[in-house]
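Holo prediction — guanosine-5'-diphosphate.
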Amino acid sequence: MPANLTPDYMAAERRFREAVDPQEQLDALQEMLSTIPKHKGTEKMQADIKRRIARLREEMQRRPSTAAQRPYWLLERAGAGQVSLVGPPNAGKSQLLASMSNAEPEVADYPFTTRVPIPGIVIFQNVQVQVVDLPPVAPEMSPSWLPSLLHRTDAVALVFDLGDDDLLSRADEVLGYLDGTSIPKRIGRAMVVANKADSGGAVDRLLMLRDLLRSGMPAEWRASVGELGGSEEYPAPFVVSGRTGAGLDSLRRGFFEVLGLIRVYTKAPGKKADHNAPFVLKRGTTVIEAAAAVHKDFAKNLKYARLWGRNAYDGQMVQRDCVLSDGDVIELHV
Ligand SMILES: Nc1nc2c(ncn2[C@@H]2O[C@H](COP(=O)(O)OP(=O)(O)O)[C@@H](O)[C@H]2O)c(=O)[nH]1
Ligand SMILES: [Mg+2]
């Protein structure tokens, strides 16, 4: 292999190997083609990638994918976004989901109880988040489909056990496993949950965990983990107990916030906004993009908007490129 392949290319190639369906393979191949260094030494590889793209395209046209080909571990999405629980065996992932949602995953004091993904809906105020309980990350024992599932999730919640003397080596294993995949690169957002805060010795172990996170957290996740607690340099986990319920209210908020979403409400002139029916949009969404989410005609004909929210005085006239915040109310004028 030529020695000068870039990290971007290597990541794309890894994505290709981990892809579970033709569309994902195609995306990865195209990224490989665009990131491969273009010179004589890679001409053969470039031609090979092009050939694979052409063949895959042909195949996809001949054989459109159907629901019947869906793998059993592929979940149907629900709610505003999906957060996947990732952690070592016995960290209390299943107990967390059982305490916070309508789901009833099996909870047991022996490892590897959870074998298939179990989704549950966690409600935070007026939004629903799909939280997925998963089999554990453990050397040689994690199911082969785990990376593929995590490639499709919106955010990862790393769950660690403050009652476990082996906390640090378990956490190392989980972080090492993730490091060997393109998941952190692909899924830019993560949070850390320090569970079983009710255990003896939890406070000391929490400090050890924070030190580990300071150095061992994938670079791609430092920003989101730090934004949710502590700082980018010294991220703080959500400290909870799935058993006693301590910390679970903040964790609900965390599940929403890690998704990088905002809630925007619309109102008609002279009327009140309906706070039960948020438009859930990506952070960074502008007035015109929100208008398009309401109805494409609003976006087409928008003259101006009025805004009530954190960064405006009540009813302030704003332009189409004004960036919205969580909780904003807009009145669209066409
Ligand atoms: N002390 C304590 N034990 C817990 C807590 N959450 C779960 N457990 C126990 O830890 C064991 C593993 O829990 P489980 O949810 O099955 O872990 P998973 O393998 O991560 O899904 C079970 O015996 C649970 O009763 C907690 O918050 N505090
Ligand atoms: Mg479990």
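READOUT: The chain has three domains: 7-67, 82-257, 262-333.
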